[in-house]
Amino acid sequence: MRRVVVVGAGPGGLAAAMLARAAGAHVTVLEAAPRVGGRTAAIERDGFTFDVGPTFFLFPDIIREVFAAAGFDYDALVPMRRLDPMYRLRFADGRTFDASAHVERLKAEVARLDPADAAGVERYLADNRAKFEAFRPVLQKPFLGLGAFLDPAMAKALPYLRPWATVDGDLGRWFRNPDVRLAFSFQSKYLGMSPFKCPSLFTILAHIEYGHGVWHPLGGCNAIPRAMAGCLARMGVPLRLAEPVEEITFQGRRATGVRTAKGAYPADAVVVNADFAAAMRRMVPNHLRRRWTDERIAAKGYSCSTFMLYLGVEGTFPDLAHHTIALARDYARNIRDIEAGQAPAEPSIYVQNGSVTDPSLAPAGHSALYVLVPVGNLAAGTDWRAIAPAYREMVLDRVSDLVGRPIRPLVRTEVMTTPQDWEATGIHLGATFNLAHNLGQMLHNRPRNRFEDVDGVYLTGGGTHPGSGLPTIFESARIATKLLATDLGLDATRVPDSALEAAE
Fold first, then answer.
1. Which of 71, 12, 51 is nearest to 449 (CA)?
2. Could you tell me where the DSSP H helices lie in 308-449?
3. Percent of the chain, pLDDT > 90?
4. Directed axis angle between helix 61-69 and helix 470-488, to 10°?
5. 98 forms bridges with which residues in the sheet?
6. Disulfide engineering: 175 pairs with which of 111, 136, 180, 329, CB 3.0-4.6 Å?
7. Strands 366-375 and 305-314, how do they pair?
8. Rounded to an integer, what is the distance from CA 422 to the centroid of its chain?
9. 398-448 pLDDT tens trace
10. Pairing state of beta strands 457-459 and 269-272?
């Protein structure tokens, strides 16, 4: 039986392990942390549960396909609720915008911001539906080289690419009002990018939201990797926690397994689900990496980071939406500060009040508030040890304004995470969304799912194709495992050809 070692028990690694085992491989999963999930794990303190990272769950059809391929019913294991409104935007002057998947409600929300722009809503949604259909086959392909651009699917998608346009610029085709465009560019957050720089391709994220919904798994997004770990246990896959991989072993340029402090794990293939920049420099010798050398990795562009507060508070906030984004007064300046590697003095903040939907996240009469502030990564050398206390106070003031009462006296438990804390967990520069998603770092220019620098190594996660965000991470696991199964002579038919296609 072919042996596969999966490095990292994040969502991509767990999905790859399930699919590889279903294809007939003997699989072992090694995870450095004492818990599964990576950035999709849970923080559990004093009866409160917080997601570490992702809180928006989109396009569940993909993960349903992964579970089904392994013989499990996702919906039976991870109950979910669809949110409406999907999220609420709050402008600095107090105006709000509720993003709804119901077209007439959405048009009414746009009309409150600018009546003239309401006429553009249906055309905008239709265009992004067509763009998504054109790019779906592109995003599900491995993109192992320039030859991928000769694929007929790529030719069909190219007219929608508009490489000269940004998300904000593309939105200008339908909406004249900058606040309306800002309301429809929130999705750039999923990639850790500015709508003024993010490629126009990513307006397709709106179709994923408006066409397929924003979901909340009960217990939080961390319920998904926990369910996956349970499935792996039933499949007989050992999952070894608190066992970090020190290196991938090689014979020439071919991977032969991995080594930890506890011993060696021989393997016919190694799947890496870890921060690409940090993991490659640690686990693969520089002389073996021809394309992705230390120097080239250092020269790449990386996403923003995040300043986090996880607040367990006394009281409930029924008027605070499940997802609320409070936009900075000067949004363009806020973005410039982030791109310069700074901590914005007046940032945009995101607050998840998950308890309004899911009471299990907090003790009775309490709420679990998740607070995220996009900030610059560590490339500029910001010392968060020095500025974090004052920054926390400013953020708590903003949260107090959102909930309509002083938040500090209500806090019963608290966890703070800075970009330096993210870096300490193995995230290069604390860039929580991995390599930046500009066109020069997408498709064949991104680290490939069959890692091109050595043999027998496969990549999944936000740092590889197709990119960051849970749906695309699950798709990266499918692509990587399909390649692995084919290369090793396993039953590749057990790996879905396309979870995206199956959802249509």
1. 12
2. 331-339, 384-403, 419-424
3. 74
4. 30
5. 88
6. 180
7. antiparallel
8. 15
9. 999 999 999 999 999 999 999 999 999 999 999 999 998 777 777 778 999
10. parallel
Residues 232-252: tens digit of each pLDDT:
999 999 999 999 999 999 999
The structure tokens listed for 324 are 């609320």
Coil/strand/helix, residue 3: strand
pLDDT digits (tens, 9 = 90+) for 153-186: 655 666 666 655 788 888 888 899 999 998 888 7
**Per the structure block, which two tokens stand in for 90?**
């709050």
User: How far are the Cα atoms of 82, 170, 245, 331 from residue 228, in angstroms, in the given order?
Assistant: 21, 38, 21, 39
Residues, the chain: 504
| Residue 322 DSSP SS3 | coil
- pLDDT confidence bin for 212, thresholds 50/70/90: confident
Q: In this structure, what is the dihedral angle of CA atoms 485, 486, 490, 496, given to the nearest 10 degrees?
A: 60
Check the CA dihedral 357-363-364-367 and report its sign: negative
Half-sphere exposure of 95 (CA within 13 A, CB side): 13
Alpha-carbon distance 169 to 186, whole Å?
14
CA 472 to chain centre: 8
How far CA 84 is from CA of 50, 135, 403, 471, in Å, comes to 21, 27, 19, 20
Token pair for residue 16?
Answer: 């790859």
Query: Rounded CA gap, 502 and 479, in Å?
Result: 14
Q: Flag whether pLDDT at 87 surpasses 80.
A: yes
When pLDDT is cut at 50, 70 and 90, the band that residue 276 belongs to is: very high
Scan for tokens 């610029």, then name that residue. Answer: 169
| pLDDT of 308 above 60 | yes
Output the six-digit token pair for 488.
């090793």
Amino acid (1-letter code) at residue 494:
R
Return the exposure string of 468-481: e unless at least 16 CB atoms fall within 10 Å of the residue's CB, then b. Answer: bbbbbbbbbbbbbb
Write down the mean pLDDT value for the chain.
90
Which residues, 6+ apart, have CB-to-CB distance to 411 below 8 Å? Answer: 311, 312, 313
